[in-house]
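Friendly challenge for the regulars: who can give me the structure tokens for this chain first? No prize, just bragging rights.
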Amino acid sequence: MKKRGMIAILGLSILLGLTACGGKKETAAETESQTETAETETVKETKKEKAELPEGKMYSYLTGEVVDEAVGSQRPYAIMINNIQEAIPQSGISQAEIMYECLVESGITRLMCEFQDIENLNKVGSIRSARHYYMDLAQDDEAIYTHFGQSIFAEDRINQGYPTISGLSGYSEAVFYRTSDRDAPHNVYSSKEGLLAGLDATGISRDYPENYEGRLNFNDEDVVPETGETAEKVTMPFPINNPWFEYNGEDGLYYRFQYGEPHIDVENNEQVKFKNLIIEFAERSVISDQDHQDYKLIGSGNGLLFTDGKAVKILWKRETESDRTAYYYEDGTPVYLNTGKSYIAVVPSELSVDYSAK
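First reply, four minutes later:
Bragging rights claimed.
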């Protein structure tokens, strides 16, 4: 009797176990839905709340640093900077909050430097002509695109209504000036006063759109990536200026070199340096007999983030022209940058960026 009782209990246990297994199988779709919801909530949770600031202060949309509202509430200028050997050294570039770099014709690069705080920008340049894909990058940050000349492809965009501060305009002399120490076209510059005059001449507003939110996310405190490979030297695949960055562990910044020497701002003799380096790999095509480049910046692609001596694989995404480029880790969560200045490069997807320990 005791034995039969044990068998009955065992049978009941097996039956209950089978019923439980059947229940799990029937709710598999529900479980998957719950997982997706949890993942969505995880992404939402990564949007961290920032600490409250004193009156008159705010977090910069470009660097995450605490700045005066009078500065942080102003759209930046995105200025096209000449970057060939004849234009070195450049002026004012160390003051830029973000520096962009892309290949243009014949293997050279051009820089687009974004300046939000222009109070001490006494001289900036030399300034060169527009390229249409830089306009896409300027749109990412609601920046006021500033240039002297343009390619035919950039001209098409401008003629379609893209607002710029242009050197080929009736108001040019109020904004830009030429120096006598260099040959044209490598001698065009501007300043705080000139840039402000550009606003008066064009009617462009420095106010951000209502309810504007920055596209970049920033950590409250410095965060060293837990994963990722050592990246104390980062070498870009640009054949003429051959730029590279070296990580300085004392201040946690990447110092830029090009043309075989430190990249210096002649106005203050400072080497250009950044907290974050962001690489976007994008499909490239040649669209003219003059080697004009085009980059597929709408869609998505692979990328790299370098910060605190580490390299982390990321993804970039911009679904439509009206969207702004966003960065994600490979698990789909948003990238959070460390507070400070950033360098952002668009690199043809067939090329690679080398990095290693020093």
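Residues 57-356 form a domain with the YerB-like fold fold (CATH 3.50.90.10). The helical segments are 2-26, 28-45, 69-72, 132-140, 152-159, 172-175, 192-202. Your move, everyone else.
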